[in-house]
Specification:
The chain is of the alpha+beta class. Helices cover 43% and strands 22% of the residues. Helix 9 packs across helix 15 (404-412), helix 10 (294-302) packs antiparallel against helix 11 (331-346) and helix 12 runs antiparallel to helix 14.
């Protein structure tokens, strides 16, 4: 069993500690939550990469690696994530749990101190970030942004989100855009870094065998250099409840051998904060969220209209996004069949095995989160961004109670907003 506690280290700086003896490693993360905005997303994403290049005490990758080696080969990596309309920037780290140290030494305190050092005491040059580190990481980030096109399945979903939410913060890429990143100077990046440290709500996460009190002491010491601000606030997520009067259709051409059809639905205002959220999650699972779903079993397997077909729920934004790979000439047939499967759910045409299969997959999938430190951290990061304290076990219990009628009611609230079709350049 594990014990989960949440306490405030400083105003607007929160610690979520999972006390457990289940793992041989301890997992630690520090995340700054800031509004996702087109003007700042690229710089925010770049900051984490530049900070990881070196600190005042460990000014390069070689000395940082040596410090990590002394901590039994620990790892600290920059992390940029998107939760609703919140950009999450910081570090995730993994170290040997104290219980397994060969000499019985304490690892948590120096590990936390190193993460704090990377965040708060970077290597600088003339009062700003080092030009070399900044320039190199700008190139790396631009390559990552460009590289997103290489995975056409993910690219189509990204383009759907951008078009569907073109006037909303959710349409902004968590990595920013090439032009903004290319234009950032070391001084501008430093100023943005100072603003982030001063204004962002900060979420600290720990999972391991150390007591919550000891974890609190270690992280208080590690983050003592944070600017004091009693007005740190969790960013809001604005959910548009309804789609427009007619679905918007966006067609693009690239040199691809397989068409990508993506459909975006508004959830009628149902998000993770609403009572209907468990039913909506079940609805998505039955629609396209599992290998037992209607999209997978019927559109892909039975009718062979798609190479793949699935759906994903954006719980904070109130979106269901369908992703499929099709032959170019199957656009209308596949689109109509995907919509027909949703209509079947709306009518309550859900077989008992579909309902129970989705329920079992959701419950077991959530409970298996407890066996993986990275997935646990990701879960609690999402809960923190949403301002929720519902734990994994509670969510699993909510899924267990959802009825067929509740699933159908949630499906009836879905409204088609945008269709994105990526086709080939010939024909």
């Amino acid at each position: 069993m594990s014990e989960v506690t949440r306490r405030e280290l400083f105003p607007g700086v929160w610690l979520r500690a999972v006390h457990t003896d289940k793992f041989k490693s301890c997992y630690l993360s520090v995340t700054l939550l800031t509004p996702l905005e087109r003007e700042t997303a690229g710089a925010n994403a770049l900051i984490a990469q530049v900070l990881r290049r070196g600190s005042a005490a460990h000014p390069d990758m070689e000395s940082l690696s040596a410090a990590l080696d002394e901590l039994y080969g620990g790892a600290v990596e920059p992390a940029v994530r998107k939760k609703g309309e919140t950009q999450c920037v910081g570090f995730v780290a993994s170290f040997l749990d104290d219980a397994y140290a060969l000499e019985g030494e304490r690892i948590l305190e120096p590990a936390a101190a190193l993460v704090g050092e990377l965040l708060l005491r970077p290597r600088t040059w003339e009062g700003a970030f080092c030009p070399d580190y900044t320039q190199q990481e700008k190139r790396n980030l631009i390559e990552r942004i460009r590289g997103q096109m290489n995975d056409k399945r993910a690219y189509a979903t990204q383009r759907l989100s951008q078009e569907m939410c073109r006037h909303e913060a959710f349409g902004v890429d968590k990595l920013g855009d090439e032009e903004t990143v290319a234009a950032v100077t070391p001084q501008q990046l430093w100023e943005r870094y100072q603003t982030l440290l001063r204004t962002a709500q900060i979420e600290v996460y720990y999972c391991g065998s150390a007591s919550p009190d000891r974890v609190e002491r270690a992280l208080r010491a590690a983050l003592a250099g944070l600017p004091e601000n009693r007005n740190r606030r969790r960013p809001d997520c604005q959910a548009r409840p309804h789609a427009g009067p007619e679905p918007r259709v966006v067609v693009e051409s690239l040199d691809v051998g397989q068409g990508k059809l993506a459909l975006g639905f508004r959830t009628g205002g149902i998000t993770c904060w609403e009572e209907e959220y468990p039913a909506l999650t079940m609805c998505n699972a039955i629609f396209g969220g599992t290998t037992l779903s209607k999209l997978f079993m019927n559109v892909r397997e039975k009718l062979s209209l798609c190479y793949y077909a699935s759906s994903a729920l954006e719980k904070m934004k109130g979106l269901v996004l369908v992703s499929s790979g099709i032959e170019f000439d199957k656009y209308e047939t596949a689109r109509d069949e995907i919509l027909a499967q949703l209509e079947a759910i709306r009518r309550g045409e859900i077989e008992p095995w579909e309902l129970e299969g989705a329920r079992s997959t959701l419950v077991s999938g959530h409970l298996s989160t407890l066996d993986d430190q990275g997935r646990q951290e990701e879960f609690w990061r999402g809960q923190a961004a949403a301002g929720l304290d519902t734990c994994v076990e509670e969510l699993a219990g909510q899924f267990a109670a959802v009825t067929r009628e509740q699933v159908a009611a949630a499906a009836r609230k879905l409204e088609l907003d945008t269709i994105y079709f990526l086709k080939g350049t010939e024909g």
